[in-house]
Amino acid sequence: MKSVKTAILISGGGSNMEALIRATHIPSFPAHIALVMSNRPQAGGLEKARALGVTTDIIDHKTFATREKFERTLHAKLDKHRIELVCTAGFMRLLSPWFVSRWTGRLLNIHPSLLPKFKGLNTHARALKAGESEHGCTVHHVNEQMDGGEIIAQKSVPVRADDTAETLAARVLKQEHLLYPRALKNTAMQLLALTKK
Ligand code: GRF
Questions:
Q1: Which atom of ligand 1 is nearest to the CA of 19?
Q2: Atom of ligand 1 nearest to the CA of 10
Q3: Is any ligand 1 atom within 6 A of the Cβ of residue 20?
Q4: What domains appear along the chain, each with residue ranges and CATH number?
Q5: The pTM is what?
Q6: pLDDT in tens, 100-149
Q7: Is the pLDDT of residue 195 over 90?
Q8: Which of 113, 153, 159, 184 could form an S-S bond across to 123 if both were Cys, CB 3.0 to 4.6 Å?
């Protein structure tokens, strides 16, 4: 069965990455994770990926003079592995229009808020401060605007009166681990249907 060759970009612990890799182990899943890349050499997710049998690579942005050079190398590596779809998961680098335009429709991100609310960082603390009664997570296409691309899927969770940013983050993260594999599955199925034509 055909499945979409997918890469995951991370910067940290990689719990979403792990959820994606585990989901793709189901034989009928329409995507497989062929590569995990981190811009941080110490990212905990790298070890997890290796333990799950996935090829890893490091592309340390600090060793590149410009964003453009970093992204050109990133793009070349994805190309070399014949990657068809990219999932960013806790990848803490903004991607330029140059990179994004090369991956239109094939570049997904997960964001811990109900977009378009709370783009950017510290979403849980900001949701609490704003007195929201519900919060959640969003998987979206990446475009040139930060956290601004077309929404693929969302899941909401209740905000409780005694929540801290940490308890709320944990509740949202649990849902991220279910939502991202579902969104990857749907996007991969759409890509497969397109290439059949
Ligand atoms: C997640 O909350 C994700 O939505 C955000 O950063 C966090 C990454 O966590 N962009 P992990 O590395 O997947 O554990």
A1: 13
A2: 12
A3: no
A4: 4-196 (3.40.50.170)
A5: 0.97
A6: 999 999 999 999 999 999 999 999 999 999 999 999 999 999 999 999 99
A7: no
A8: 113
